[in-house]
Specification:
It is a single chain. The strands form two sheets. Strands 8, 9, 10, 11, 12, 13, 14, 15, 16 and 17 form a ten-stranded mixed sheet that branches. Strands 3-2-1-4-5-7-6 form a seven-stranded mixed sheet, sandwiched between helices. The protein folds into two domains: about 240 residues, LmbE-like (Rossmann fold, 3-Layer(aba) Sandwich), CATH 3.40.50.10320; about 230 residues, Spore Coat Polysaccharide Biosynthesis Protein SpsA, Chain A (Alpha-Beta Complex), CATH 3.90.550. The longest helix has about 60 residues. The protein is α/β, with parallel strands linked by helices and about 575 residues long. It has 19 helices and 17 strands. Helix 11 links the parallel strand 8 and strand 9.
Length: about 575
């Protein structure tokens, strides 16, 4: 799957971590402003104490090496004043002579420890200049050893970060940063660093919206993250995408070939339509004219997928031969099948490819399939083929994987996987048995296909001809009788016993539930009968009351009461 910018930017922070004491380590005078001058101004404006350490003397930043260190130090002090931070500390290591080692690591660690810093800025290890690289590695190691709640923000100074995880809008302080950069007159004579840095900051604002004019980018990491090393943080965008499960290279989205054995039936249109709607983006369709002769024209595309029709004008082909010819014409890394009277859900291929790619070795990946009656307006599912654990012994007892349920590596053909063209039926079953001897099967735990009853097969698991099935199985097992080892027979027998035991358990559970339901039903029936008897008694008492002499004698009084109530209601309405 291709990663879009929204998915990437959702993981990119927009705010610096809360910090009271900040340390900025710059390889040379001016690097602190180029890399994080905007962030420094924002942090200082928020009340943080910001300390800058200039690690080398910068003597090789121009021709006047004797006087340049003092001049550049003065420029750094002037730039710090512009940003409102205290004057930098100068360690005066020789320019281009910074060496990664214990002395530098310990000195950085002592500075961080002594300052109580909770946020440290360092050049990124992806920088080109050797001093930048040495400082980045030594600083990262120092913070890693100190552990605690310290955060490190790696800056881009001379080399843009490939995939920063923090973008800071510095629009409110961009003018101050540009002013601070103009303090380095000695360096601006060498190159327009101020404009270069400003250009990078303009670019970094691209993903912060139209309101942002300037931004700085960082890779932010906690001290604990550094224990895993810097490779994960700085391995680049392709590796970052791969860690998140997205494609980075063409091989990450392998070509999938789907073979359709066609008898040129009207149902082929539905089958091809279902392929054209696949959410997986890199597939091809190979239609094999199994009918022979002239097949109806299909065009060169199945939606966005290329389509090839083979054996046009050729002889009729049995299913096994048609399948083998189709596979021979495939170019895909993974192969699958779809008969011309079945269909696939739009999200059929994607989870199968994911299962194939995440498995430790070669596997056959398969999903569940619904068994339906064609042209059923209600779409009632007659059976669901969704056995979760496929294996050779289980498949030897019977095929439960429709041919279009699975994808498999094309490389299995090199290991001898092919359809047995001598089998007129059960060639799919035979194919899966061969595959099960080569590699494991992995179930995706999804149902993504439709198997329609109503075709021409007399051995369909939905509606089969028992006489034809018996004869076909006899031929099928004649082949496999000499191929199955005693151990495989034992495994198959054990699976059969387990299946029988499971079925018996389900039957006993069903009987128990039925008995419980019957008991509840009997209880309710008894209560209903009792309620009916009570109603009879009440009706008898009511009938006696209505037929009594006293009820008849008091009839005028009840009529008088009714009239008085009517008069009172009338008067109440008149008054209101």
């Amino acid at each position: 799957m291709i990663m879009d910018e929204g998915q990437y930017l959702a993981a990119v922070g927009r705010k610096l971590p809360a910090a009271e004491r900040v340390l900025v380590f710059a390889p040379h005078p001016d690097d602190e402003i180029i890399g994080c001058g905007g962030a420094m101004a924002l942090l200082r404006g928020g009340g943080a104490e910001v300390t800058v350490v200039i690690v080398t003397d910068g003597a090789r930043g121009g021709s006047d090496r004797e006087n340049l260190p003092a001049r550049r130090a003065a420029e750094s002090r002037q730039a710090a004043a512009v940003l409102g931070v205290s004057a930098p500390l100068f360690w005066n290591y020789p320019d281009r002579g910074l060496v990664y080692g214990e002395e530098l690591i310990e000195r950085i660690a002592a500075q961080v420890r002594g300052s109580g810093a909770d946020l440290v800025f360092l050049p990124a290890p992806t920088e080109i200049h050797p001093d930048h690289q040495s400082l980045a590695l030594a600083g990262a190691e120092a913070v890693r050893r100190l552990a605690g709640r310290i955060h490190v923000a790696f800056c881009e100074i001379g080399a843009p970060l490939s995939n920063p995880n923090l973008l800071i809008d510095i629009t409110p302080v961009q003018k101050r940063k540009r002013e601070a950069l103009t303090c380095f007159a000695s360096q601006l004579r060498e190159q327009p660093y101020a404009e270069r840095a400003h250009g990078l900051n303009l670019f970094r604002a691209l993903h912060l919206g139209a309101e942002a004019e300037s931004a700085e980018a960082f890779v932010l990491a906690g001290a604990s993250q550094l224990n895993r090393g810097l490779t994960e943080l700085f391995s680049g965008m392709p590796a970052y995408r791969r860690r998140l499960g997205f494609a980075a290279f063409p091989g990450d989205i392998p070509l999938v070939s789907i073979v359709v054995r066609s008898m040129d039936r009207p149902t082929l249109t539905d089958a091809l339509d279902s392929l054209s709607r696949q959410t997986y983006g890199h597939a091809e369709v190979v239609v094999v004219n199994a009918k022979g002769g002239e097949h109806s024209p299909l065009g060169e595309w199945c939606g966005r997928f290329p389509l090839r029709l083979i054996n046009q004008g050729g002889e009729p082909l049995f299913r096994g031969r048609a399948a083998n010819q189709g596979m021979e014409d495939c170019r895909g890394v993974y192969l699958g099948f779809l008969d011309d009277d079945d269909t696939l859900d739009p999200d059929h291929i994607s989870p199968l490819v994911a299962a194939l790619q995440t498995s430790s070795g070669e596997v056959v990946a398969y999903s569940g399939v619904r068994g339906l009656r064609r042209n059923d307006p209600e779409g009632k599912v007659l059976k669901t083929f969704a056995e979760t654990k496929a294996s050779f012994p289980k498949l030897l007892l019977g095929n439960f994987i429709p041919i279009h349920a699975a994808l498999f590596p094309a490389s299995l053909r090199e290991r001898g996987l092919a359809f047995d063209e001598s089998l007129e039926v059960y060639e799919d079953w035979d194919f899966w048995l061969q595959a099960a001897r080569l590699v494991p099967f992995v179930f995706t735990n999804q149902v993504t296909g439709n198997y329609f009853q109503g075709g021409e097969s007399e051995v369909s698991p939905l509606y089969l001809n028992r006489d034809v099935v018996r004869l076909a199985k006899r031929r099928f097992f004649c082949k496999w009788l000499d191929l199955v080892s005693p151990e495989e027979f034992v495994d198959a027998a054990e699976h059969h016993q387990e299946a029988v035991s499971d079925e018996k358990t389900r039957w006993l559970d069903a009987c128990k539930k039925l008995a419980e339901s019957e008991a509840v039903s009997a209880t309710l029936e008894g209560r209903l009968h009792q309620a009916a008897e009570d109603m009879k008694k009440q009706q008898f008492l009511l009938d006696e009351l209505l037929s009594s002499r006293s009820w008849r004698m008091t009839a005028p009084l009840r009529e008088l009461r009714r009239c008085l109530r009517s008069i009172l209601r009338h008067r109440t309405k008149t008054v209101s």
